[in-house]
Amino acid sequence: MLLSPLARFVRSRLLAKALIAALAVGALVLAWGFWFEPQRLVVTRHELKLPGWPAKLAGLRVALLSDLHVGSPFWDVEALSRLVERTNAERPDLVLLAGDYQINDVPGGTFVHAEPIAERLGALRAPLGVFAVLGNHDWWNDGERTRRAFTARGITVLEESAARLERNGQSFYVVGLADQITRRSAPKTALAHAPSGAPTLLLVHEPDVFETFPRLGISPTLTLAGHTHGGQVWLPLLGRRVVPSEFGQRYAYGHIVEAGRHLFVTSGVGTSILPVRFLVPPEIALLTLR
Predict the structure, then answer these.
(1) Would you say the C-alpha torsion 46, 60, 216, 206 has a positive or negative sign?
(2) Residues linked to residue 46 through DSSP beta bridges, in sequence order
(3) How many whole angstroms separate alpha carbon 100 and alpha carbon 207?
(4) What is the spatial distance between Cα 122 and Cα 124, in angstroms, rounded to a whole number?
(5) Which residues face 286 on adjacent strands?
(6) Is 255 exposed, middle or buried (0-12, 13-18, 19+ CB in 10 A)?
(7) Shortest CA distance to 74 belongs to which of 98, 101, 40, 103?
(8) pLDDT tens-digit map of 26-68
(9) Where are the domains of the chain?
(10) Are 270 and 282 in contact (CB under 8 A)?
């Protein structure tokens, strides 16, 4: 049946309105993903109940920062200073940095050398100290230079090595692994720097190494990682479609427990490949260990 002129007019108006609405929603999503959310910063708070974590260390507050990618859009050196101020305002007991402080070929980005990054990060304050591992981007941009710059600013860089810390008369260990993409790493040997059974925080860049722990027969109290950026984009029903991991979304973000072993992966701060974040805001992960 042919539509009357009035019906055709109404239908065309409805189609036009639907098209305008779709374009408006698309523009809003693009603005959110490429402008608003990449420069947004949130503090995510997590209470982790860990098997064997000593009562004297209960309530230990760890600030985990990763993938700063200084020089990516919206995360220049001045923004890094604001990140440091926000972290210090949380008064963590310990600050851990999980790698990737620099960028490579991010559209709209500006490369920043290690020294100004280390200068700003040197203002981080925590009673038990600031410890770091280096990531793949750091080694692609002269990891030794980054290590020297961090060390000169009072940040301890761990690579297949450990630091013994103490709180309330109870010792525990922070062990750092070498970057899994660019370096040689032996997790079992590195963890041997901590006495058997001692409370141990294992700091790594890429979380995929966690999958090897059952085969290696190792079980740190908690492994902390970055690298995935939480996928940078999270889509309802579809999830995190692009995750730089051999295991897809398995280790993309958050607190993961497998066979009694605990892993926490932060979504990080900056951006890589494309300067976009959608429903995965830059974060300071504040972990309270119980």
Answers:
(1) positive
(2) 287
(3) 13
(4) 5
(5) 45, 63
(6) middle
(7) 40
(8) 666 576 677 889 999 999 999 999 999 999 999 999 999 999 9
(9) 1-39, 42-289
(10) yes
Structure tokens at 222: 């908690």
Q: What are the residue ranges of helices labelled H in the chain?
A: 5-31, 77-89, 114-121, 136-140, 143-152, 187-191, 213-216
Q: CA dihedral in degrees (248, 204, 61, 197; nearest 10)?
A: 110
Q: Is the pLDDT of residue 23 over 70?
A: no
| CATH tag, 42-289 | 3.60.21.10
Q: Which amino acid is at 59?
A: G
Q: Which amino acid is at 24?
A: A
- Token pair 């932060």 in the structure block, residue: 266
44 contacts 285 by C-beta, under 8 angstroms: yes
The dihedrals phi and psi of 232, each to the nearest 5 degrees, come to 65, -30
Name the pTM for this structure.
0.92
- The token duo for 169 is 């008369």
DSSP per-residue string spanning 205-226: S-GGGGGGHHHHT---SEEEE-
